[in-house]
Design brief:
The chain has about 300 residues and is mainly alpha-helical. It has one domain (about 5-95, about 135-165, about 190-310): Amino acid/polyamine transporter I. It is about 75% helix and about 0% strand. It has twelve helices and no strands. The chain has helices at about 5-15, 25-30, 35-55, 65-75, 75-105, 115-135, 135-165, 180-190, 195-200, 210-235, 245-290, 300-310. Helix 5 packs across helix 6. The longest helix is centred in the last third of the chain and has 46 residues, at about 245-290. The protein starts with a helix and ends with a helix.
Amino acid sequence: MGLSDLTALGINQVIGGGIFLIPAPIAANIGSWGPVGFIVAGLAMLLIALCYAETGSRFSDTGGAYLYARAAFGKFIGFEVGWMQWFVRVSSQAAIVSGIAAAISYYWTEANRGWGKALIVSSITLLIGYLHTTGIRQSALAIRFFTVGKLAPLSIFIVAGLCMMDSKTLPSFPAVSPHQAAAAGFMLAFAFGGFETIPVICGEAKNPRRDVVYALIATLICVTLVMSLVQLVYVSSSRGITESATPLADSAGLLMGSAGAAVIGIGSLISMFGANVGSSLAASRMLFAFAENEDSPPAVGPLARAIALPL
């Protein structure tokens, strides 16, 4: 994987399903301060990413934060950090694939219950698993595809909103209480999660000590720009919509009609699917890293190597 592949992976993981859902609660808490909030959060996350970049420039193996903690604090702390990182990836996969089923239920009511949900969840999981067994190059190409697929509808939304925007559509900046600022801050921190996946794939990079550094920085700059502009368009076009379950689709409907809402709806499905592709790739490489460093149960190590080596 080259620099562009790693950057696509980072953007794919940060811009998952969250940006399609949190503009409304962000606006409910801090109103038109939302775009500013995204910029401030992006700069704060960039400081953390720079720490990852500095540390990642010293490693060329698979594992990310797991390897850093193991080298700095020993095997036990590395074990704790690594397995917690793996559980986060797996649990996020489960939440996202469940979200995909919920989104499809808008068109097919059985998709979010009983056998219909089981069929969708298992089919998506098996399909992604098969993709990863075909090789790291195919996984990288898929991640590129999904990254473009999620950025395209968001770009349409941003351009349409900016073209229709004027000073009259922007609400005034409200007074914000400490409680509201803290609530928005937690949501913004969640929105930027995922860039830490890049160093996990370090062992698959062509020039890991250089490319991981630039990919982390490029990812944070790109996602901060995209998400702050999305929030700006939302607060200027939402007309007070702060409790919607599908805020971007509702906003796109106001801007571009039903076609715009459909574009954002399809984009959210592509985005969630793509996030699961990247998350599952990182989770599989984590197991390989545990096996390589003998931090996995004896029965898991050979299986992890057998699964990951084809990549």
